Known about the structure:
Layout: E1 3-11, H1 15-27, E2 33-36, H2 45-48, H3 60-63, H4 79-92, E3 99-100, E4 103-111, E5 116-123, E6 128-139, E7 163-165, E8 180-184, H5 188-198, E9 203-208, E10 214-217, H6 222-230, H7 233-257, H8 259-274, H9 280-283, E11 296-299, H10 302-308, E12 312-316, E13 319-322, E14 326-329, E15 334-336, E16 339-342, E17 356-358, E18 361-362, E19 370-371, E20 375-376, E21 382-384, H11 393-414, E22 418-421, E23 430-432, H12 439-444, E24 450-452, H13 463-471, E25 480-483, E26 496-498
Parallel strand pairs: 1-2, 1-6, 1-26, 2-3, 4-17, 6-21, 7-16, 8-9, 8-16, 9-12, 10-11
Antiparallel strand pairs: 4-5, 5-6, 13-14, 14-15, 17-18, 19-20, 22-25, 23-24
Amino acid sequence: xxxxxFDVLIxxxxxxxxxxAYYLQRDCPTKTYAILEGRxxxxxxxxxxxxxxxxxxxxxxTLGFAFKPWTDPxxxxxxxxxxxxxxxxxxxxxxxxxxxxxxxxxxxxxSSADALWTLEVNQKDGTGTASYTCNFLSMCxxxxxxxxxxxxxxxxxxxxxxxxxxxxxxxxGLNYDNQKIVVIGSGATxxxxxxxMAEKAAHVTMLQRSPTxxxxxxxxxxxxxxxxxxxxxxxxxxxxxxxxxxxxRWSYTIARKYPQFMKNLLIKGVKKELGEDYDxxxxxxxxxNPWDQRICLVPNGDLFESIKDKKASVVTDxxxxxxxxxxxxxxxxxxxxxxIITATGLNLKLLAGIPFVVDGEKIDLSKTISYKAMMFxxxxxxxxxxxxxxxxxxxxxxxxxxxxxxLINYMDEHGYKQCTPRQNDPNLKLEDWLDFxxxxxxxAMHTLPKQGTKKPWRLEQNYxxxxxxxxxxxxxxxxxxxxxxxxxxVAAEGMKEVVSGEL
Length: 503
């Protein structure tokens, strides 16, 4: 099989993949690259999810790219607006021509002798299989299974006479006018769907096992709008971006240092929205502390408004079973429904679930240690773009992608071909990679790498700290091992196609 070679391959054409392409063009302009996207279009999450009200749950001044100002007045943006922004970005920076669609990577093998990754790819357009080689692999494939969301095994689902829908597979053109809806879940997806569907439905019930922290905020930032009027676009954007970063960090720090104070503050905010007569203790007071799980944002208090208008309600209970008419709860109450939405979460899948082989040995990711939360012990020339759980996804992805470029340039300057994080500290203690209690993380924890108790093996979840560690600190830090294997053959003559960058 003929192999196509690039200096760098980026896996995934969502936000993090587009970011990787931009920084590679900017910082490593002589490198050839391609983006392999398993789906038929770009956008990742923002193209995949089609449920009513799909929107960001972070402000666009930090979810947007540092190099591409977000100029829309709405800081909390809907899915179509984000997709337009991504399309503008790939066109403005001439990235689109580098994207190859329907390329599903099914295996990645590293050869130290050749300092080369070889990727086996199924072409989902029906044209068969393909082979790619590269010197550096940038994984920007997101963090969950794009094929299937998570739905618990509820008893009696086959008895229910209405529709059961997971938000990840929303049917096009679904008519829910004047229908009774039950949304199972209380996370970001549920609190988005409920008020939006309540606009047309007969009634929407949010059914939750336990409450989630929810906070209301305007979808427009008045100060940002003012700076946009007074200053050049990039200057205004930079100011707004740094202001939001500082605010995010300040609120997170306060929450972790004084959890009860922050908990009281959040609950007080809900009581202000719903009134003292509403049972906030039952429906909006979690048992965990703020940021043990992500705090849900409701723009302009839309969820609370739908509850006050009696268009939506919240039920906190456990499911006994599905019935022909709806859902029977442990308390004995039956919720009637025409449509049940299982907003029950995602299936976490790191590195797109691709089998990785290094010098003939299959890698068990759970046995590796995360280096700067973007590389893995004993896996050469591979970086991962993985965002924050306590701030905007893009902030960390941008840092990781820039660091990958620093690594590539450092190797070129010193004649190296291979960079590998090596953990040789006998005193390093290991912990779970993510300190997060969300169900989708807990379900997959046994598959994830570990983190260490000190740098550079520790995941800080702190943009300002990461900016120093990733953006400023030495590349050759005594942990990253560089080498230049004697054999550097890419492939046998006549078995490769060297691409100049024009696709």
